[in-house]
Design a protein that fits this description.
The chain is mainly beta. The protein contains 4 helices and 11 strands; from the N terminus they run ββαβββββββββααα.
Amino acid sequence: MAVVGVVAGVLTGWPGLDTVNGCGLAVNRYPSETARDWVQYADVVVVAKAAQERESGREELAGGSYRLERTVQLDVQAKPFTSDARSHPAVGSDLDYIGEGWKLLADGKTRIAQLTGDAPRVVPDHTYILALRWEDKRWVSLGEGAVVPFDGQVVGRGEWCGQVLDTDGFAQGERTGRSGDHSLEKKLLGQGEQAVEKALDRAAGKKS
């Protein structure tokens, strides 16, 4: 087990911890890899910049530690896809997204940032494409393939697994480096918003 950073009392765990993407176990609520998955299971796909984060709940664990829920405010820049298959709130200029949180240790000060297999944590000052679903009156991602780094309007550039990567670094990740991976993020690596919209339109059966 390795600890890769200590910033303001926040530690980030790597393989061996129950934390991270490409750095831990994958978390999938719904299929999330392909454009077809996104249009079938997501209520909305957004391009958004993470503006700020806050603790939004806590659960006491054994030994005096806590699991802290984290809510991230996303400033929405574009909505390449909106589903009319299910009832959900309209998305405006911003929304609250439930991301991976923290574990607060028994000392009451040290926070361990929780990550989840093969995906970004979603941290302030970075931009992402997210396939979201309205569940239990909250916006959550479909799963590990539904949050894609998008800094500079480029698929695969930005924060991933708590690190900041360029497209080459992202391509060497746990999932996108596999020859059998046919995910949307791999197919569109290095491309921009127009390519994303076209892929989603095709999957939804819209004529370009």
